[in-house]
Batch of 2 targets.
Target 1
Amino acid sequence: MNYFLRRILQLIGTLFVVSLITFAAFYIIPGDPARVILGPEATEAQVEALREELGLNRSMLQTFSDWLTGTLRGDLGESLIFRQPVTDLVAQKIPVTLTIAAMSIFMTIIAAFPLGIAAARKPGKFADQLISVIGHFFLAFPPIVLALVITLLLGLTFKLFIAGEYVSYTDSISGFIASLFFPSIAVAIPKIAVFQKFIRTSIIAERSKDYVRTAKSHGLSNMMVMIRHILPNSLVPIITVLSIVASEILGGVLVVEMVFNIPGISRLLIFGIENRDYPLTAGIVLYLAVMTVIVYFVADILHSLVDPRIRLK
Amino acid sequence: MQRIIRFRNHSIFLILGGVFVGIVLFCALISIIYLPDDPMATNSMTKLAAPSADHLFGCDHEGRDVLSRVILGSRPTVIISLLGILIALLLGMLLGSAAGYFGGAPDHFLMLISDSIMAFPGILLALVFVAVIGKGLPGLIFGLGIVFAPSYARIFRTGIRQLKDREYILLARLIGVKPPRILFVHLFPGLVPQLAPAIVVGIANMAMAEAGLSYLGQGVQIPQPSLGNMLMEGQSYLVYAPWIIIFPSIYLLFYVLGMYFLSEGVRMKFKTGGV
Amino acid sequence: MAYEPTPLLSIRNLSLSFSDPVTRKENSILSRLSFDIRDGEVFGIVGESGSGKTILSLAIAGLLPETAKITAGEIIFRGQNLLSLSPKARRDLLGREIGMIFQEPLSSLNPLISVGKHLEEVITAHPDASTPKETRGMRKTRILEMLAHVGFHDPGRIYRAFPHQLSGGQRQRALIAGALLLKPSLLIADEPTTALDTVTQTQILDQLRRISQSFSLSVLFISHDLKIMEKMCDRLAVLHNRRIVECDATYEVLHSPGHPHTAALLRGARLDIRGAEVARPAPPAGAVPLYRIEALSAGYTTTAFRGATNEAQVLDQVSLRILPGEILGLIGSSGCGKTTLARVMTGLLPGSTGRIYENEELVADFSLKKRIRKSPVGLVFQDPYNSLNPYKTVGWLLEEPLRVNHLHPQKDRRERVLTMMAQVGLPKRYIDSYPHQLSGGQRQRVALAISLMLSPSLIIADEPVSSLDVTVQSQILQLLHDINRRSGVAFLLITHDLRVIRAICDRVAVMDSGKIVETGRIGDVIHSPKMPVTKLLTEQI
């Protein structure tokens, strides 16, 4: 399992670079959290005292190394503004964001595969044309606009859901899922369009490979050739793209949460950025980066399950 | 594969995309010399006024003319997406070519950086970068440029790695062609079929990212109109005055959809081009 | 009239065409083909690339691409017209009655599943071809038997192996096992050994021949190579210009060809270039060599995990002299270091030790890591599809050497290009063509012309004809020969094919595992080879 070890090291390296970038970013950003907390009325001396207390006068490298050692122990520090542990703040909000993301990824997968396979069956024929035209339209639908259209059309006009209503998962799990359904759709639709198109292309590319001809010459039916040969082989690039799509979905959720007024991580993130709350922002960024890294890692595992060339290297 | 080409003629995509993008570009250009009304002038008489002969697209919650604001608001979208892609392309070309051509340690280092950037949801990184460089136009252009650069770096790197050991490149080295000329004259034409559609799609994605940032209040700052912050401002009036958000939405959609159509057309054109 | 049994397969007036997806024009590919394959015989179809051999085999199997259409004729297999069968019935014949093997063993197996799974599919796809309630274990026994039959000594390992763990020859054997597993009566073999090296080629062909006899199997054997045909086939048909121009017993076809195209193929196969030309006299012993390579070694260093380096020695103390104006052949099997030698000489790769002299003047000393100057050596590669930039026109490509070296005023360059095109036999009208608009032979002419633009004293040609059709091969070799005689440029001709060496070389050097094992005048080496490697090579002819 040398391969996995190498990949894990690589992904940890990625996380390190990611945190360093966010940290460096905060040291360049103009603005002073101490001034934000105390407001414009406070005297220069008061601000200076708070800066000292919050540790804002230390060098970036020192702050970073402190933060890093804390992080390695599972302690992301304390938010400058809220004066609460970052982990607690994030833990309140992240389940919502991750649920929307997970639902969107799920929707993308279950919708894109049938569409992509249907389109690839007879390229250029009616079904393919139809899927392609609709796909192109939604491919280019900006998520905000789509979210607004869904609110306006499905929420306000057809009353399928109450715009702006959110049920916390502590109150009702089913109500929670239901209230996140339309936001998830808004994130998923453009990704379904991207993903189904990619599935179609990979299947068509695999179909002209030599081994398909061999399988046919062995007398396998078209169905068997598709299930046993073409689909598994096209899965290799599809998994890679799925991991990229999943990371994009996470980004899409950040915007769509705001449109649907859902108390997820993105409002906390914007708040952290605007108020120069660097432990909070860095913590959130790290959380989200870890999530994407996990997605990439799962993709790697799936790859090795599908492809013996990776497994038996 | 051959069959598709007949049905999905690339020129349809190019024409349709050209018209969509053309409308938005025309508005952005015309806004320099003419606006139907003052986009900044608030007017308590026309608050939330519905579209009429006086105000074709209606008025917003401050009584400002939506048509004028949309026309002016499309300007940052166009400027940021075009200049931002230029930055992304230049950065990507520089880093990707170096990594691809020389390989070894610089390649590993550059790919680690680009993998790290790509591991992020783009909007997250854009938020951080824009916060660093500043929320104005330059901040958005450079911030988004950096976020988009890795994907172009990757195209350059992979393309060059694939092509540089081709025999025709070896032959070019042999007849005395110097490395810069090999890159620019002998290698780059081979990348165009992949690069051209990616650039056009990049413009669309960057316009979407800009709208997203402005919507989140981290991009173009109010009262300066942009398609994104108009959506943010208008959202509260969705029920009573949907025109405040409908028209900027349509503009954004035109631009993004138009670019996607253009890229599809460009991609098909290269595919059928024979090479 | 002797007794004629019903043929196993009988093609009657078969015509086939491709419809162009854009213009919807019908392009005829095969026209009114008729031939029979008898029980137990090996029937060969020979033709150059693009003659429609492969499409014919796919038509028989029923695996034509959508754009191809059979416009007339019948394919009768065991008295039944295949074209009137349902797709399902035709599919059922595949694998059971008709087995197939293809040219590219490397890509013809699904990389994700093991050899055993591949073969098991053949059985499970034909439920009525196996005894009812056949267990997995019984199927495995059958498969292992077949794997042993096609020459695997350790069928168990091969059964479990994934394609990427096997060599090209092993994969082709596995494919043969799959094609023969259900004991079909017809095997279609489409250039089955073209992608393999000579030794493996011989083994696979012998195996095929043996199996066809022991299974009383009929084989439709498709190839471009007359030498293989002579060894393999009982009867032979020549496909040319969409038609079968000749069909008879192999011996008859090869020894008294009845059609000019067959004669041309045979001439091509012999590569008879010199004709009656007398061998050039040996140069005086003390002549100054154009190039002298002294104890040249070279290898690749690969950096492994944690900075450890592995060095693979590719060239081992190679010494070689190239005389002015001669054509020196360099022969050896694939992987012996020929190509590396070419790349070190041209400066594309560094050597690790050794020296190179040009006209007895030191130009490179690799022990000191020093290349004093690069000499203008021309290089022609094997694959003319990869050696020309697809995005540039012929004229641009030919002008580039002059442009980058600032030779000749700009206005004269086009004139120079046209002169050069005339010299290599390319009509003027191709000056604005892109490489993909040219044939393989034409591209190779362009590649040669690019090398000649800088008037080098030596051109290294690395397998310049091995990817070309035989009739084109002899044209290109003729061109090399003519250019050598006309302009006095020396050639180092690298090849694995002794026929090419014999056709135009003055001297030959034999290379084996990175060493030069024998050099000499061409006649001496061919007629009295000293080293065992050389003997093996000379037996090819």
Target 2
Amino acid sequence: MQRNGAVPAPFEDAEEECPICHSKRYLRKDMKFMINPECYHKMCESCVDRIFSHGPAACPVAGCNKTLRRARFRKPTFRDLQMEREVDIRRRVAEVFNREEVDFDTLKDYNDYLNDVEDVTFNLIQNIDVEEAEAKLDAYAAANKQLIQSNMKRAKEGVDTFRARQEAAKESAQQRRKAALQEEEETRREEEEERRNLLKALDAGGDAEVLTRQSQEAMRYRAQIRKEALANEISANENANGSAQFTIRGLKKHVEKEEEEEEKPYDPFDGLSDKREYFVLQEDYGWENYDRLNKPEYSAGGYNIHEYYNRALCEAFSGLGVFIGDSSDEAPPAVASAGAALAAASPMSDDVF
Amino acid sequence: MAKLQEKTLTLLSNNKSTISTANSPFSDTSNDYAPPADLAAALNEQEKHKYIRLKQIGSGTYANVYKGHLRADPSSLVAIKKMKVQTDYKEGLSMDSIREIKFLQELSHPNIIALHSVFSSKDQNINLVIEFMPHGDLEMVIKDHDHVAYGLADVKAWMGMLGRATWFCHENFVLHRDIKPSNVLIAADGQLKLSDFGLARSFADPYQPMTHLVITNWYRPPELFYKAKYYSGVVDVWSCGCVLAQLVLRSAYIHGETDMQVLDAIVQALGQPTEENWPGVSKLENYVMMKPPTRPLTSKAEMMNLFGTLGPVGVDLLMAMLALDPRKRLTSKQVLEHEFFKIAPRPTKAADLPKKGGGEKQAAEDLKRKATLLGEGRGGKVAKKLDFGAARR
């Protein structure tokens, strides 16, 4: 017996006996056991024939009151019947819950879904709240009939294309082998002919060395041509068969949206602007106190009084348009009169604009 | 403001249980009263709890950097920068961390690294939670000659992004003062992110002196070598110009061991600052003339020899960014407005930009492996042919 529960073809154990008729394998070498997925009680083929040949009957195992039908009896795949049952349940659940990872936005969603499915499956297997689990399964199956159908079709398509690809690969391998054989055959024929020609030429009289070299070169050249032609033929065949194509299913739709952006000219400022809302910077505010800044010991280092004007004005107006009572983030900026504000902040300038 | 208050209030109510259990004497005095120290601690604890720290991915003089992720979502990676306790700043936070926190929490721009959160861990260590940058920095790209190749369109895209970051800082009156390739990180989507605001400060008021001891010296403009105390945003533009030159040369354009050597390199590369080309320069405290003969300003033809790949317009931009006189240098806004960004080739899209590291290297390895496999495949076929021959005989 193998570790995974799979059974080697005949049941070897001579001591094995049918729990119903108690006949032993020792006496009946060809004894076969069968089970019914209603209750998974095993019995030998002859018992099944004997008990169920006249229509449905109760399971002969004491205490099991399930009504069984002959048609549903089958040979178990696994010797461990617990395993057999689990596999059946899993198959049944998987047929209903047949979504794939591509159907989900994130891996987390998919994992959550798998977790829910496993909960149902586990409950069914372990006989925990079976009613509830069954109800869940049925409800889902009823609600998602269409989806389940289409998913099933999709899965089948996947298997089909895989099979088709395998078929094509096999075929092309066969073709290659045939072509190689053919090539060998042709090479042999040509070698033969070349040798004959050589002999003839030698017969007619000539430099043996030169002739041999010539014939060898001719042969090599012809082999090269043949090889190339063959390669071309095979690759052409493959392309026609479509086996060289590689298909990946389930790729998410790639949205091309970069095209639009290409249209716009490059904006070095990236959409930002240094426009101030409440003031316009003047060339000079005529403040004598700052005249000294024009002296080289201040100006040679690059100090720029306009940067200071800008900052001073900006700080003077900062906070305008922000209302404490207004909790909304997008409070519309207060439309204070920019002109008035500027005039107030720069008394030295007589022309506001 | 209102928003902030509300937030604090909700946090307060959320933490009521924590606070009351943490400090039982206060628990039954008043419903809404919580001692401020414990509130801060509780808020800090809550913030800290949001993140999980994983392995260390880097370390420097001032900080160790760890990889981490949100507790709630392991796929959202962050980098946690744990500032080392400074020996000189026993009485509080180091200037670096204060500057970094102060400016990063204000500046929100696609090309400036995002600061997600700040919390303190035990021993009063300050931890900054910042964006995780899996693709390293621009310096790695520049240095990885073997695996990374890039062209003019890529350089233009990078300079565009760096220019935007610099302009955005200046537009918000922040001087970065440490722009260099290793402080420009590359995000997963290819965007550059300006980082390391440890030397940043806001623009100075008139007559307010600033220190000249900023910017890594290879990227430091001449006015800072001359100890200018009153300077402006164009110091960052010089650094950007050095980065542009380095992107083309694939090695540092201006470099030297000591500050004096670097200054000499500037003079050799671009010319000697004099009263003619930089009025008032001799009034700067530390102004020096290099030994005669006086090197004249570098002409455009000379620059074309070195930076020809940028094209004439690109060289114009580079020369304007590396103008000796800061008043003649382009501002960060003028850099972005330059013709260079308007002419062909169009800057590469961020996602298509070359990246250094595992990706490239791995790809190269893959290619190598494929090549050998191909060879084996051919060998196999030959063997088959020979088999056929044997079978025939």
